[in-house]
Structures are given as structure tokens and as C-alpha cells.
Amino acid sequence: MRNRKDWDTYFMDIAYMASTRSQCSRRHVGTVLVQGKKLLGTAYNGAPMGVPDCSEAGCMLVEEIELKVVEDKEEVIRKQRCIRTIHAEQNLLLFTDREDREGSTVYVTDQPCWTCANMLANSGVTEIVFHRGYPKDHEKVSSLMLARGITFRRMEAYEPPAGTISEVIN
């Protein structure tokens, strides 16, 4: 008899399958909304509906500068972000109802960025489970989740389904 996948693995597999719809050349991200063991929605990152995506029109990159204090010294951190793409977490929030999100869990292939973390913190979800880290925002996102009382955990030993991983460009 074959062993069944645990629920975390099952839902993260679905998030990775959703990520295969992404046309982003930098990072394919997928996410799912789950309440109990019931799947309520899926989403992936991409351009708004009916608008050329990055594979057709190219990435629309902007550079952001962040000051960070490390051992009493200011450090300048530069980040490039594509602003053509709506993030998977943002699409999930756009296409699900607030009442469905209350007390729910979000599974996402990648740790949410700062903007998505802020949105998720106000969305009603009580847990965020992710696989791949996002070091640029990890510290402040983790602090936000702790302050909001949202369980925030990484599935480090998880192995995505074959054919769902794309190269990540930071």
C-alpha cells in the first residue's frame, strides 16, 4: 500500500502546480488558500488579465533602495522588482472572499515579499506556509507575522513535484 502525502505536502504541491501558469521570467510563484482541509482558491503571479506579460513585453523593473542598520552602521540595500507582475498572493486576495480567508492557511511556493506580507497580515489568514525563502525581506516579514500572531513557517525539507521548479532570478 502506498503512503499518502501529508496535508502540507499535498497543498504545497498544488501551489507549485499553480505556479506553472506563470509567465514571469524571473520567478514562478503559486499560492493556495485552505480552510481546514478544504481548498478555497489558487493563484499565480503574472500581468493583469488582457495585458501583455513579461514574456511578451519584457520585465518592467524598478530599483528600490532600503537603508538597514547593521551593528550601528547604515547599509544600503538595492532591490530590483518587476512592477508589471501582480504577485501570486495579491491575486489570491483579489479572487477570494474575506469570509473564506478568516482563520485560513495560505500555502505559497515562495516567502512573501514585504508588500504581500502586509496584505496577508490584514487578510484574515492565521497561517502562512512557504517553501523557498526570500532573504531580502525575511527578517522584517518574520517580525510582522510574529507581531500579528500569524503562524509563519517554512517547509525546508519539501521536494516540489517534477517539472514545477523554474530557475529563480533575484
% residues in beta strands: 25-35%
Which structural category do the helix and sheet elements fall into? alpha/beta
Q: Quick one: how many beta strands?
A: 7
Distance between the termini: 42 Å
**Low-confidence region ranges:** none
**Helix tally?**
6
Q: What is the H/E order?
A: HEEHEEHHEHEHE
Shape: globular
Classify the oligomer: single chain
Task: Order the strands across the largest sheet as they lie in space.
Answer: 2-1-5-6-7
GO biological process, one term: pyrimidine nucleotide metabolic process
Protein name: CMP deaminase
GO molecular function: dCMP deaminase activity; zinc ion binding
Binding site for Zn(2+): 87, 113, 116
Give an overview of the whole structure.
- This protein has 170 residues and is α/β, with parallel strands linked by helices.
- The protein is 28% helix and 29% strand.
- It contains six helices and seven strands.
- The strands form two sheets. Strands 2-1-5-6-7 form a five-stranded mixed β-sheet, with helices on both faces. The chain has a two-stranded antiparallel sheet with strand order 3-4.
- Strand 3 and strand 4 (73-82) form a beta hairpin.
- Helix 5 (114-121) runs parallel beside helix 6 (138-148).
- The longest helix has 13 residues, at 7-19.
- It starts with 6 loop residues before the first helix and ends in a 16-residue tail after the last strand.
- The model has no long low-confidence stretch (mean pLDDT 91).
Keywords:
single chain, 170 residues, alpha/beta, five-stranded mixed beta sheet, two-stranded antiparallel ribbon, 6 helices
